[in-house]
Specification:
InterPro entries: PurM-like_C_dom, PurM-like_C_sf, PurM-like_N, PurM-like_N_sf, PurM_cligase
Number of helices: 13
CATH architecture of the largest domain: Alpha-Beta Complex
Catalytic activity: 2-formamido-N(1)-(5-O-phospho-beta-D-ribosyl)acetamidine + ATP = 5-amino-1-(5-phospho-beta-D-ribosyl)imidazole + ADP + phosphate + H(+)
Helix content: 25-40%
Pathway: Purine metabolism; IMP biosynthesis via de novo pathway; 5-amino-1-(5-phospho-D-ribosyl)imidazole from N(2)-formyl-N(1)-(5-phospho-D-ribosyl)glycinamide: step 2/2
Strand content: 15-25%
Radius of gyration: 21 Å
CATH topology of the largest domain: Phosphoribosyl-aminoimidazole Synthetase, Chain A, domain 2
Structural class: alpha+beta
Distance between the termini: 75 Å
GO molecular function: ATP binding; phosphoribosylamine-glycine ligase activity; phosphoribosylformylglycinamidine cyclo-ligase activity
CATH class of the largest domain: Alpha Beta
Number of strands: 12
EC number: 6.3.3.1
Number of domains: 2
Shape: globular
């Protein structure tokens, strides 16, 4: 009887080494001088020299900000299409967009990729998206982990987790305390569904309607696969310019990343207990993808707005005097925005008007 090997258990170490060899170049292209070389690979190093920061040149009382998230069942759509080079952008976006809500500058990122079997090309495709997302967020990809678990995942399955660390000056943290009646809520466009609500999306599209990823998405100018896999919008550069241009506490009073729970739930998370937000529902155009999903699944309005971003990926609360100026800066980055509501006296709620 032959001796049992790791390969017999479903893990091929030679193929694993091939996978690992494809990643250093994707990491290296995201590095800045703050990333220190560390040859043993057990950790990533990032120097606390903040003299060259993009958000603030000189930190006096810095606070580290950490965020983690995944991509969820959007990965099932990637598996159906065989396209895996964009979900890494989603992974980065779900983390760095959260960090922005504190007013933070993203510094570095790590990923965790869990796979059913060694697949060098699949891993390279996934990490290429993560690398691209980091580059577009001016953030270093300093390391990660790849786990091969054949007994936990079915062949072809994988899962992703991301970890972002950023920094913000304590005096410039967006903690909700500056929100005041009269402030304007600016909604910034999303790129589509982003990475939330895909369990409902897949039930509507594939189970209820019986569509495939190659079918045309009616009214959406693309196939089902193209529309559903459109990656999460990254807001780092646009909001960095807004935050750098103004004294944050006097102009930008709050930022909310609109993810699961929709506009109401996520906007309310940044309120202090003395204010409410009144949102005008028809103050921005609903993207065709959400209208298509609603028709396809006969979904109630309230459920759509509770699950999806409905076209608003980030909400920024600003002093009324500067609202149009902030919108101009966002437009210079190619982002549409709308004044979708106002802050009023209240008790920390968000409501339609």
């Amino acid at each position: 009887m032959s001796k049992i090997t790791y390969r017999d258990a479903g893990v091929d170490l030679e193929t694993y080494q091939e996978s690992m060899a494809r990643l250093p170049a994707l990491m290296k292209r995201t590095h800045c001088p703050r990333v220190l070389p560390w040859k043993n690979g057990f950790a990533g190093l990032f120097t606390l020299d903040f003299s060259g920061g993009l958000f603030s040149r000189n930190y006096k009382d810095p606070v580290l900000v950490s965020c983690t998230d995944g991509v969820g069942t959007k990965l099932k759509v990637a598996q159906l299409t065989g396209q895996h080079d964009t979900v890494g952008i989603d992974l980065v976006g779900m983390c760095v967009n959260d960090a922005l809500c504190c007013g933070a500058e993203p510094l570095f990122f790590l990923d965790y990729v869990a796979m059913a079997e060694d697949n060098p090309q699949l891993l390279e495709d996934i990490v290429s998206g993560i690398s691209r997302g980091c580059m577009e967020s001016d953030m270093a990809l300093v390391g990660g982990e790849t786990a091969i678990m054949p007994d936990l995942y079915q062949s072809g399955d994988y899962d992703l987790a991301g970890f972002c660390v950023g920094i913000v000056e304590r005096s410039r943290m967006l903690d909700g305390s500056a929100l005041a009646p009269g402030d304007v809520v600016i909604g910034i466009e999303s790129s589509g569904i982003h990475s939330n609500g895909f369990s409902l999306v897949r039930k509507i599209v594939f189970e209820h309607a019986g569509l495939t990823v190659d079918d045309e998405a009616e009214g959406c100018d693309g196939t089902v696969g193209d529309i559903l896999l459109r990656p999460t919008q990254l807001y780092v550069r646009a909001l960095r310019d807004v935050l750098n241009h103004y004294k944050v506490k006097s102009v930008v009073h709050g930022i909310a990343h609109i993810t699961g729970g929709g506009l109401h739930e996520n906007l309310a998370r940044i309120f202090n207990p003395r204010v409410d937000a009144e949102i005008v529902r028809d103050s921005w155009p609903i993207p065709p993808v959400f209208e298509w999903l609603q028709r396809l699944g006969d979904v109630d309005d309230d459920e759509m707005f509770r699950v999806f971003n409905m076209g608003i990926g980030m909400a920024v609360v600003v002093s009324e005097y500067y609202a149009e100026s902030v919108q101009g800066q966002l437009a210079s980055h190619g982002l549409a925005s709308w004044q979708i509501g106002r802050i009023v006296e209240g008790s920390g709620e968000c409501r339609w008007v």
